[in-house]
Write a structure and sequence with these properties.
- The protein is α+β, with helices and mostly antiparallel strands and about 350 residues long.
- The protein has one domain.
- A four-stranded antiparallel sheet has the order 1-2-3-4.
- Helix 4 crosses helix 9, helix 5 runs antiparallel to helix 8 and helix 8 packs across helix 10.
- The two termini are about 40 Å apart.
Length: about 350
C-alpha cells in the first residue's frame, strides 16, 4: 500500500535570532527570546505573504524570489525585535555621535542601522561571491594562456562556481569561531530540533526535541548551498573566452532570480517528499548545517518550543493559559512586513 504522506511536513519553519528563535506557521509569527534574568519574552504578530494576496506572485519560480525578499524583510525585522526584547543594559553614557543619531532619527534609528547593514551585506555578497571568483578565474586563465593554452569556457564556469562554494564554506567556518555567532548557531540547532520533533509527531518537550536531528532540508543554509550549485548549471552558457568581465557579472546578476526560483522549488519539494533521491540531492546542504547548527541545551530548546507552540495556537491551545502569557507580546502593526 502507498505510504501515507506526513501532513506535518512544511507547516512550520523559523530562524535563530539573538538569544532566541522565531517561528512562522501560515500567517502566524512568534518570537521567543531568553532575557538576561532567565525569563522568556514573547512577541506574536501576523505576516501575510504577497503570494496569498495575488496569485501571480505564487507562480512557480516567481514565488521563490518573492519568498526570498519577504524572508529578508521578516528576518531583519525579527532581529531588530529580538535585540529590543533582550533588554540589554543601555545605562552607559552616550557618545556625541550616538546622541546625534538619536536626535536625527529617533525611534527609526534601528531601522536605519538595519537597512545600512542589509545594503552593506548585499555589497559584500556580490564582492565575495560574484566579483572575487570571476577575477580569480580570469587570472588563472591568463596564466594558462601565457603558457600557450587556454581553459575551455565550461571549465572556467566550473572553477568560478567551485571557488564560490569554497568561499562560502570558509566564511561559515570563520564566523562560527565567534562566541556570539556560535551561540546563535545553538539556537539554530534548537529551531531545527523542535521542528523535527513536531514533524515526527512527538510530544513537544526539551527531552524529546533533544533526541531529534538538528539537520533539516528546508534550512536557509541548504538554500544558499543549493543556489551556489544551481548557478554553475544555469550560467554554463556564458562564454568566458569572448565575453568581457562586466558582461559575465551582469549576466549572473540577471540570472539570479531564475536561480533563486529553481532553488526554492527544489527545497520545498525535498522538504515535503523525503525519499532516496531527494536525500542524496539535499546531502551537500545538510553537510553545511554541521557548521551553522550546534547542539543546543535544554533551556534553548525550551525557547524554540515556546516559539513553535505560539506560532501554532490551533494545534497547541494550551499556550493561551495565563501562566505562560508573556510580558512582552503584541499583535502586528501596519508597519510589519507583509
Amino acid at each position: 500500500m502507498k505510504k501515507e504522506k506526513n501532513c506535518r511536513l512544511g507547516k512550520v519553519g523559523g530562524q535563530a535570532v539573538l538569544e532566541g528563535v522565531m517561528m512562522k506557521s501560515g500567517d502566524n509569527v512568534a518570537l521567543a527570546v531568553r532575557k538576561e534574568d532567565g525569563t522568556i519574552a514573547l512577541k506574536k504578530s501576523t505576516f501575510v505573504s504577497a503570494r496569498k494576496k495575488n496569485k501571480f506572485w505564487n507562480i512557480p519560480l516567481i514565488r521563490g524570489c518573492v519568498n526570498m525578499v519577504e524572508m529578508m524583510r521578516l528576518s531583519f525585522s525579527t532581529l531588530n525585535d529580538s535585540a529590543q526584547m533582550l533588554g540589554i543594559d543601555d545605562t552607559q553614557p552616550e557618545t556625541k555621535f550616538e546622541k546625534w543619531l538619536d536626535k536625527k532619527f529617533g525611534d527609526k534609528l534601528m531601522n536605519v542601522v538595519m537597512t545600512i547593514g542589509m545594503v552593506l551585506g548585499i555589497i559584500l555578497s556580490v564582492g565575495l561571491f560574484m566579483i572575487l571568483p570571476n577575477v580569480a578565474t580570469m587570472g588563472l586563465n591568463k596564466l594558462v594562456t601565457s603558457g600557450g593554452g587556454t581553459l575551455p569556457s565550461f571549465v572556467q564556469n566550473l572553477i568560478s562556481g567551485l571557488l564560490r562554494i569554497l568561499i562560502f564554506i570558509v566564511y561559515l567556518l570563520l564566523v562560527s569561531m565567534m562566541k556570539d555567532i556560535r551561540r546563535t548557531f545553538e539556537y539554530h540547532g534548537a529551531e531545527h530540533k523542535s521542528v523535527a520533533c513536531y514533524e515526527a509527531g512527538l510530544e513537544l518537550t526539551p527531552e524529546n526535541a533533544a533526541k531529534c536531528t538538528r539537520f533539516h532540508p528546508r534550512c536557509g543554509t541548504s538554500f544558499i548551498f543549493v543556489i551556489l550549485i544551481i548557478s554553475i548549471l544555469v550560467t554554463s552558457f556564458i562564454n568566458w573566452n569572448t565575453w568581457p568581465q562586466w558582461a559575465i557579472i551582469g549576466t549572473k546578476l540577471l540570472m539570479l532570480p531564475v536561480i533563486v526560483g529553481i532553488g526554492f522549488e527544489f527545497l520545498m519539494f525535498a522538504g515535503k517528499h523525503p525519499n532516496p533521491v531527494t536525500r542524496v540531492l539535499s546531502a551537500p546542504g545538510l553537510w553545511m548545517q554541521r557548521i551553522t547548527t550546534k547542539e543546543p541545551d535544554a533551556s534553548q530548546l525550551e525557547v524554540a518550543i515556546t516559539a513553535l507552540k505560539n506560532a501554532m495556537p490551533k494545534e497547541f491551545p494550551e499556550i493561551l493559559t495565563e501562566e505562560n502569557e508573556p510580558e512582552e507580546s503584541g499583535e502586528a502593526t501596519e508597519n510589519d512586513p507583509a
